[in-house]
Amino acid sequence: MKDTKEILEVCSEFFNTKNIKEIKEITTGNINETYVIKFEDCKYILQLLNSHVYYSPIGVMNNTRLILDHLRKKCIYEGKNPHRTVLNFIKNRYNQDLAIVNNEYWRCCEFIDDAYSLNREISINEFYEIGKAVGNFQVLLSDFTPNVLDDSIRHFHDTRYRFERFKEVVELDKFNRVKECLPEICFIFQRQSKFDIITSKLEKGIIPKRVTHNDTKASNILLDNEKQRYLCLIDLDTVMQGSLLYDYGDALRYGASVCSEEETDISKIDINLDLFKSFTKGFLEELRPSDNPKDITKEEISLLCDGFWIITIELGMRFLHDYLDGDKYFRKDEKRIKHNLERARNQLQLVLKLEESFEKMKIIINDLLDELDYPKYYKIG
C-alpha cells in the first residue's frame, strides 16, 4: 500500500486534493492496487495498474475505452442509465486516460453508488443475476470486432503455452521448492493432454473468437442494492479476444465452489450444484438463439463444462507456477509464506471435484436447454 503522501501526489493529477475527505484502500484484488477517493458529494476509484502483469498499460486502457464506448451506446439505446450500467473513466489534467507518476500508471473512474459486489456468500438469485450479467456482456458485444483489441496479457488463456512455461519453472527450480510440490506437479502433468481443448478449436475455427472479459469472478459484477439485479461488469483490464467459455468457466470457478480460493482445508472444497444451475440458467437465458449469426453455437454449449474445468486447472497451475518462481505475479499475504501454494492446492482440489461432477453438470445443462426452449440439436450428447 502507498502512503497518503504518494496517493495525494497521484490524486493531484485528477483532482483538487484540498477537497478530498477520505482515502481508503480496497484490498480484495490480486493484481492492481485500488483506492476509494471520497469527496463531499461523490466518490472515485483510483487504481494503480500492475505493469509487471500488463506489459502495455496504454494498450489496456485503449481496449477499455473501445469496449466502454460500445457498451455505453448500447445502454443509452436501451434506455439504461450509462452512469450505473457502464464504467466511466475520467481524464487527468492533461486530458489523458492514464496519469504516469514516478513511472507508474494510474487511472480513475466514477464510483457507482448504491451497488455491491460479492466475494462469498452468494445467494441463488444473486448468482442467477451474475449469470445474466456475463451472458448479457456477450450479447452487447456480439457486433464488436474482437480483432481490434490488444492482448493485454499475452497467451492469457493459452493453457498449453502456460503448461510449457510451467515445465520450465519446474525444471529450473530456482527457489528449491519443487520437492514440496511433487503431488501437485504430478496432478497437472497427468492432465496435460486436455490443455488445448479450447485453444485448438479456436485456432481451427470450430468455435468463434469473441470479446471476452476473462475475469468474471463475482467481485467483478456490480448488483443494484435495492433490486439485487445486475448492473455491469467492472475491471476490464483483461478484455481481449477469446472464447465465451472462459468467462463462463471463471465465473463458476469462483462462485460455484463452496469455499473461496483462500481456503486451506481442502477437505471442505466442493461444488454447489444449485449455484451451478442458477448461474448457467441466467447465462443461457441471455444467450438464447435468435436470428443473430453470432448466437452461441452448439459446439460452445458442448464445451461449457470443459470451460469450467480448463479455467480452474489453469489457475491452479498459475498459482503453483508463481510459488515455484518466487511469488512475482499474484499479490499475497506477506504473513503466509506458502500463500500461492495453498491457493494452488485449493484450485487443484476443485478440479478433482469438477471431474467427479461432470455428468451431473451435463444433465443440468440439458434440462436448462429444454426449459429455455433451445433447439434440440443444442443438447449435449
Structure in words:
By secondary structure, the chain is α+β, with helices and mostly antiparallel strands. The chain has helices at residues 4-11, 57-77, 82-85, 124-140, 159-172, 182-189, 199-203, 244-255, 273-286, 298-302, 304-324, 339-371, and strands at 22-26, 33-38, 43-49, 89-90, 99-101, 104-110, 115-116, 210-212, 221-224, 230-233, 240-242. The strands form three sheets. Strands 1, 2, 3, 4, 5 and 6 form a six-stranded antiparallel sheet that branches. It has a three-stranded antiparallel sheet with strand order 7-9-10, with helices on one face. A hairpin with a 6-residue loop joins strand 1 and strand 2 (33-38). Helix 4 (124-140) runs antiparallel to helix 8 and helix 5 (159-172) runs parallel beside helix 11 (304-324). The N and C termini lie far apart (51 Å).
Terminal CA distance: 51 Å
Order of helices and strands: HEEEHHEEEEHHHHEEEEHHHHH
The major β-sheet equals: 6 strands, antiparallel
Structural class: alpha+beta
The coarse overall form would be globular
Number of helices: 12
Q: What's the rounded overall pLDDT mean?
A: 93
**Overall radius of gyration:** 21 Å
- Helix % is 40-55%
Unreliable residue stretches: none
Beta content comes to: 5-15%
Helices and strands in order:
Elements: H1 4-11, E1 22-26, E2 33-38, E3 43-49, H2 57-77, H3 82-85, E4 89-90, E5 99-101, E6 104-110, E7 115-116, H4 124-140, H5 159-172, H6 182-189, H7 199-203, E8 210-212, E9 221-224, E10 230-233, E11 240-242, H8 244-255, H9 273-286, H10 298-302, H11 304-324, H12 339-371
Antiparallel strand pairs: 1-2, 2-3, 3-6, 4-6, 5-6, 7-9, 8-11, 9-10
